[in-house]
Amino acid sequence: MNHATRQFGSIADIEVGPDGYLYVLSFTGGLYRILPASDINTA
Predict the structure, then answer these.
(1) What CA–CA distance (Å, rounded) separates 24 from 34?
(2) Domain coordinates of the chain in residue numbers?
(3) Measured between alpha carbons, how far is 17 from 21 in angstroms, rounded to an integer?
(4) pLDDT for the residue numbered 37
(5) Longest distance between any two alpha carbons in the chain, whole Å
(6) For the chain, how are helix, strand and coil distributed in percent, rounded to 5?
(7) Which pLDDT belongs to residue 2?
(8) Alpha carbon 31 to chain centroid distance?
(9) According to DSSP H, which parts of 1-43 are helical?
(10) Closest CA to 40 of 21, 25, 13, 27
(11) What is the pLDDT of residues 1-43, one digit of tens each?
(12) In the chain, what is the straight-line distance between the N-terminal and C-terminal CA atoms, in Å?
């Protein structure tokens, strides 16, 4: 399990946003945007 997965906890929903990034909603109410490694320094 990687670091990001531990931060999500239990995942309630996953969707692709209009910007093309993946968004993860956790059951605890956290909303996470997943960026490709190549975009981390530019986002």
Answers:
(1) 8
(2) 3-36
(3) 6
(4) 79
(5) 29
(6) 20, 35, 45
(7) 46
(8) 7
(9) 3-8
(10) 21
(11) 345 555 677 889 999 999 999 999 988 888 989 888 776 665 5
(12) 24
Q: What is the pLDDT of residue 1?
A: 38
Q: Which residue has the tokens 């993946």?
A: 22
By the 8 A CB rule, do 31 and 24 touch?
Answer: yes
Q: How far apart are CA 25 and CA 15, in angstroms?
A: 9
Specify the pairing of strand 22-26 against strand 31-34: antiparallel
- Closest CA relative to residue 19, chosen from 5, 4, 33: 33
pLDDT at 6: 58
Nearest 10 degrees: Cα torsion 28, 33, 37, 43: -130
